[in-house]
Amino acid sequence: MATIYDVARRAEVSPATVSRVVNGHANVDPTLAERVRRAMRELEYRPNAVARNLRRSRTTLWAVIISDIGNPFFTSLVRGVEDVAQRAGFSVVLCNTDEDPTKESQYLDAALTEQMAGVIISPSGRANHVNRLVDARVPVVVIDRQVSGAHVDTVLVDNEHGASLATTHLIESGYERIACITGPEGVFTAMRRLRGYRRALEDHDREYDPDLVRHGDFRSDGGYRAMASLLALRPRPDAIFAGNNLMTVGAVECLVDSRIEVPAEMGVVGFDDVPWAHLVRPSLTTVAQPTYELGREAAQLLTQRIATPDRPPTVITLETKLQIRDSSLPRSQP
Amino acid sequence: MATIYDVARRAEVSPATVSRVVNGHANVDPTLAERVRRAMRELEYRPNAVARNLRRSRTTLWAVIISDIGNPFFTSLVRGVEDVAQRAGFSVVLCNTDEDPTKESQYLDAALTEQMAGVIISPSGRANHVNRLVDARVPVVVIDRQVSGAHVDTVLVDNEHGASLATTHLIESGYERIACITGPEGVFTAMRRLRGYRRALEDHDREYDPDLVRHGDFRSDGGYRAMASLLALRPRPDAIFAGNNLMTVGAVECLVDSRIEVPAEMGVVGFDDVPWAHLVRPSLTTVAQPTYELGREAAQLLTQRIATPDRPPTVITLETKLQIRDSSLPRSQP
DNA sequence: CTGAAAGCGCTAACAA
DNA sequence: TTGTTAGCGCTTTCAG
């Protein structure tokens, strides 16, 4: 690999001049600049970002740390991040933790030791992970899940409100025994969505019954198992609110396998849109999240945090929207 | 951020000794080592990977460059890569090109300038991109799509054979006018799958009719549009072979919207499994690819390439398997 | 077994 | 406008 010295020698200038041409910083005599550019071309010179990063003590890479690369929620979000990052001159790399705190910790280490310019993270676990970044003064934005006790920019959706909308919709459509499949205990979004479900019930003078609640793993399998367990109840629930997209899919798979008709025998509303929802019969009522915008907002916060590290942290909450489709058609009266 | 000098001073040793403790390279007196470790803890010392990388002129990051992060094919593949990488002490970062050569080029630049330890790429475009890596002696493995004229490790599936199996299956199930939706012109997998389709037809003394072929974009929308265009034909096709998972989804969506019964009015076979295939009615016959293994094999080749840069390139071809489900049920005789 | 010192490739004062 | 030079933080000879 040619270095900046090789180029300098060939162009008969100093390394500093080459650096100036490469970075377009200072004014360089056009003749020299041209000579430098030619030398670069001839030597196929490519700046060594590692050396540059060391010298400048900053990099141009953002890490986006997410918990499930297989969930379209995150892939859409990542696109939002990418589009903003690119315009601001950063490259985005993705790190997939599979909801595993060990993996998350490893990627945090990588982000720290590699001196990444910034991190956008949907934290799987406790606050201390995020605080490691904050303490090390790495610009960081938390996305999707609030971290209590971390003083950090955050982008959320109105989980509780969305869940409440969904549940209210089921109530008003005439469903009587509405169950809930929420996410893992201790995960922020899972707790908020459960709270919204509960609030809606209580607002309509329904009893909140913990027996009708299951905790899944935010993946399809968990939704399937939770649904199966709910189906064993007597009396059986006649509707369910599922706390994320993949668990909705799993729950519906279970209903299909059990030959239970949706919505005739079981109303279904899910949180977050299901990919290829059109293909699923019947079409699914969901609480739609602005996933792409979530990514955009996070990326914008991150650029601002990088520009002004000492600004006070912001929390942005985006709105969800209830998309009524066929899986929650009004209950025909007996 | 504490540096190695800070630690050395506190532990009253030389930076070299700290380095030895950190890397466990040479033998260090246990007393000193303990002093160093304590100093590290007290200062929350974290080695600066940028400086280390510069000094060692190698890094510990792999880039996986893929064309569509929204396609489960790639997400499963990435998991295969991650599992191997982690064991070998590398971190994996993902780069999404959205099939855009400009983005691809940018990520290649990033991989080069950041001196990444290795690259696994599913190239969207021409050979020259990959050759930039090979020429720069960056360890690289090409995955999913062969690059003609690049002397490089490659992991593929038997696209032609799989496509031929799928088409033969439709023929033997009694379908008469079998159309094909393949991928973008010039994309390796698209060409091979089209060739398999054609070969199967000709092997069964059917005429290959270019009017029955459409080129989609490997995404759902493209599949939808291609299907719509095929439906305008008179006589209409009575079966289709779709060249990847998302286009299969799009094609089926189009059929649903057009109220065309599958398989009664249109047999469907897709290449690559569709996520949540259970939910799609009827269940879809597909050519299943070993996506996770694809990633594993690629990662293994990459570790070998890094260990022995001058070994001759290998091409590995994994087998696909026809998964027969309901969307291609034997045609009932008229 | 330990320390001194050179240098990875680049940038940014500072001087000329 | 250009060049000289001193590091960024780390590893790794080479002496001791």
From TrEMBL, chains A, B:
Q: Which SUPFAM superfamilies match?
A: lambda repressor-like DNA-binding domains (SSF47413), Periplasmic binding protein-like I (SSF53822)
Q: Which PANTHER family match?
A: HTH-TYPE TRANSCRIPTIONAL REPRESSOR PURR-RELATED, LACI-RELATED TRANSCRIPTIONAL REPRESSOR
From the record, what ranges are coiled-coil? none
Please name the taxonomic classification of the source: Bacteria, Bacillati, Actinomycetota, Actinomycetes, Micromonosporales
Q: Which UniProt keywords apply?
A: DNA-binding, Repressor, Transcription, Transcription regulation
Name of this protein: LacI family transcriptional regulator
InterPro entries attached to this UniProt entry: HTH_LacI, LacI/GalR-like_sensor, Lambda_DNA-bd_dom_sf, Peripla_BP_I
Any one Gene Ontology MF annotation carried by this entry is:
DNA-binding transcription factor activity
Cross-referenced Gene3D superfamilies: 3.40.50.2300, lambda repressor-like DNA-binding domains
Domain of life assignment: Bacteria
Report the Pfam families cross-referenced here.
Answer: LacI, Peripla_BP_3
Where's the HTH lacI-type domain? 2-56
